[in-house]
Amino acid sequence: MVGGGQLARMTHQAAIGLGQSLRILATEPDDGAALVAADVHIGQPDDLDALRRFAKGCDVVTFDHEHVPGDHIRALAAAGESVYPSADALRYAQDKRAMRERLTELGVAVPRWRPVTTADDIRQVAAGSGWPVVVKAVRGGYDGRGVWMVDGPDGAMDLAPELLVEERLPLRRELAVQVARSPFGQVAIYPVVETVQADGVCVEVLAPAPDLPAGTAAEIQELAIRLADELDVVGVLAVELFEVDSGQIVVNELAMRPHNSGHWTIEGARTSQFEQHLRAVLDYPLGACELTAPAVVMANVLAAESPAQPLDERLHYLFAGEPDVKVHLYGKRSRPGRKVGHVTALGTDLGEVRVRAARAARLLAEGRTDGD
Amino acid sequence: MVGGGQLARMTHQAAIGLGQSLRILATEPDDGAALVAADVHIGQPDDLDALRRFAKGCDVVTFDHEHVPGDHIRALAAAGESVYPSADALRYAQDKRAMRERLTELGVAVPRWRPVTTADDIRQVAAGSGWPVVVKAVRGGYDGRGVWMVDGPDGAMDLAPELLVEERLPLRRELAVQVARSPFGQVAIYPVVETVQADGVCVEVLAPAPDLPAGTAAEIQELAIRLADELDVVGVLAVELFEVDSGQIVVNELAMRPHNSGHWTIEGARTSQFEQHLRAVLDYPLGACELTAPAVVMANVLAAESPAQPLDERLHYLFAGEPDVKVHLYGKRSRPGRKVGHVTALGTDLGEVRVRAARAARLLAEGRTDGD
Hints:
The structure is a homodimer.
Chain A: H1 6-17, E1 23-26, E2 39-42, H2 48-55, H3 70-78, H4 87-94, H5 96-105, E3 113-116, H6 119-129, E4 133-137, E5 147-150, E6 163-166, E7 171-181, E8 187-189, E9 193-198, E10 201-207, H7 214-230, E11 235-244, E12 249-255, H8 265-268, H9 273-281, E13 295-302, H10 311-321, E14 326-329, E15 339-347, H11 350-366
């Protein structure tokens, strides 16, 4: 797996069960996955020589991010390496413009958008939908980075080298779904989930998405399967969606790897997205996606500015207070706002499960305060 | 963790979630845990210098087997290392004679037994219970090794350097229970399970033990908690028990580490025995032990003499046939009869779950035959 972050770290956990050991291409020896894996290469994801050395002897090469240039992936494939997803598929997760063009061709609903060549492009979208509009970097954005709400075109042209602009839709909520696809073409689809954002960063995932009509859920699942097929995805495809106030479902973003919106699957589904990604890229038959409990909530742990206690003590409070919440720490250095872990709670009543997950995430991020 | 087998391998998976990385003292670089962990020392568990080097810088030292001599553990503790379980506790898992003496003092039922000094000791037990009797090595036995049924004393004295002899009880079945205890003294107890043996080797674990009266289950759990307290165990204590034809419950063996009879907890309990062992030895509050499904079955995968297909193909058949069975491969070289992995199935009907687990284990061990 190219990339040594938490996605590779959790994929390594899954790989161990399958009798595999994940080779990691990390940029630093203290990357989250590099700290826990036996076979670590250090190198940059845009260094073709490093990629070639890394790929030598791997059964298959896959990614925990979108930063490997397509030409490098093609060069590896041309040299006989198995690489999944392919450069042609991954392009639609790397290039937001290419994705929107392709989805529009396929007749899939996306927000009204246009590439930005001049400030007039931004004004034109605003003329239709009003300000603010959403400006996005075409490449390299993630976790709310590379996305800006702008109230006018001033300064917007300098936000990133290549931009697109989108109408800002009146949202009921955000949804997501994971689908896995193997080279053989088998697909496995997870239940649709609701993702809750704060300041553009995912803080909570509710599985399954509450109060989603069965027909809508099935349509979203069919859409995800269709996208995986049409884009020839191999591995996990995460589809992030908007549920607009009108009820319409619109595709927001795509990722072709395990994704934050699927972390709930580790305990909440029979097969985790990490195991599923491995099964897919290794061309094994895929695993069952059924929920293991009626309600599953994943809450991200975002590092606090000044936690009340050191991490070890915060873990003590969390374990004492929530003995059945599961903890996943990523081994990352803490920096305010950084995702340093997540927690998962399961149960029968979504409201109750949500309270437990949120409390656990808060105890882990901020520590115990007088209110606890 | 001293020892690089599958127990350390699965403990490493749990450690990753807790934000830890397990340091392993393996005897070979291709030990199951050494293949997948970042921080591996190579050394023998009875080499005090290797143990000292290994322990330096560890938060706490623990074990995946019973092979570290008590004096070495005492030397590490005297040098200021945290070692759990302690030498005084671990003695009762290392020395079957010491265990039986101590349990007898505590008034806990064990099979009628005596240490073997001469062949007469064997004859004396047989005089009470009839032949065959059970002869056991006092030290070093595991997985059915170091246990012999003998029909007479001839040759029995040469089976191991130090022996004990036990009556052979008429068994209804074998049971087991896991309890975890922290240095603080908190305990967490799992449901009682049934363990199914073939030729002295565990092949299947049924959780919870079917048709066990609630009162008996509670008594067994109380007994395990009492033993953990009395023996001052820190970490997981596995208690293996006999349910005798009369209904009496008798202690068979103790292990002070994650144990094969607890592998079902990875998917079948809210907290796995591996995470629980880490939480205990790190003195974190312990996790919830509740079952995640009404019926959980773990089946060991014992390497077959001549499987019908290579491993990769067998995995394909298993994944295709049983998409919701979870697989754990240990990264071990295959040798007929060797435990190379296990599978876990969950559901509501024990009979159905058991069929699925057994089929999955057979597909993985032997491969697909005309009957499948």
